[in-house]
Amino acid sequence: MKQYKTYIFDLDGTLLNTLNDLAASTNYALRQFAMPEHDIDSIRRFVGNGVRLLMERAIPDGARNPQFEECFATFRKHYMEHSLDTTVPYEGISALIHALSQRGNNMAVVSNKFYAATRELVAHFFPEIPVAVGEHEAEGIRKKPAPDTVEEALRLLGVGKDDAVYVGDSDVDLATARNSGLPCISVLWGFRDRDFLIEHGATTFVNHPMEIIAED
């Protein structure tokens, strides 16, 4: 695997297995409004482009539902209180982050998860990662696949795009890397499988986190 100086990581499905907590908060919110709940495989298909779109997919009629905003707010509140209930790093991720830190690599996380949750999760699990950028549209930073969060992360790190790579698990991550002008490493332990990723243009894959820094 080519070695880079700067690693920009997606969060959900790449560094952290957040699926069970996302599903629990989704179904909690749906129950409060007597809406049908979803199984874990359906939630897996819904995630990947921010929690608002997750809820648009989960709620009947999506954003057109007159109770959408209330239900979405209920989800957000519940998730902020329960985002650490079962969420854990994928096997080998903590070792990878530590190895990159020891080597002096630049690292950042960019996510379509809302800003506060992104910061909280990264600070809790990965204190060696100094920069975490989540969704904060009020500041004019568009969510992925726009390049804005990547560009903001690079700005906060004080580095350019040269010798930088994006690491993610989804089609949105592939598009984000492409829009940012970065190569992309697609991980195979996340929310999407190899065939799906190939269909969306993936060319570089890893089966285990430490392969990211393995010498050719």
TrEMBL record:
<dbReference type="Pfam" id="PF13419">
    <property type="entry name" value="HAD_2"/>
</dbReference>
<dbReference type="InterPro" id="IPR023214">
    <property type="entry name" value="HAD_sf"/>
</dbReference>
<protein>
    <recommendedName>
        <fullName>phosphoglycolate phosphatase</fullName>
        <ecNumber>3.1.3.18</ecNumber>
    </recommendedName>
</protein>
<dbReference type="InterPro" id="IPR036412">
    <property type="entry name" value="HAD-like_sf"/>
</dbReference>
<dbReference type="InterPro" id="IPR041492">
    <property type="entry name" value="HAD_2"/>
</dbReference>
<comment type="similarity">
    <text>Belongs to the HAD-like hydrolase superfamily. CbbY/CbbZ/Gph/YieH family.</text>
</comment>
<keyword id="KW-0378">Hydrolase</keyword>
<comment type="pathway">
    <text>Organic acid metabolism; glycolate biosynthesis; glycolate from 2-phosphoglycolate: step 1/1.</text>
</comment>
<dbReference type="GO" id="GO:0016787">
    <property type="term" value="F:hydrolase activity"/>
</dbReference>
<dbReference type="InterPro" id="IPR006439">
    <property type="entry name" value="HAD-SF_hydro_IA"/>
</dbReference>
<dbReference type="InterPro" id="IPR050155">
    <property type="entry name" value="HAD-like_hydrolase_sf"/>
</dbReference>
<dbReference type="InterPro" id="IPR023198">
    <property type="entry name" value="PGP-like_dom2"/>
</dbReference>
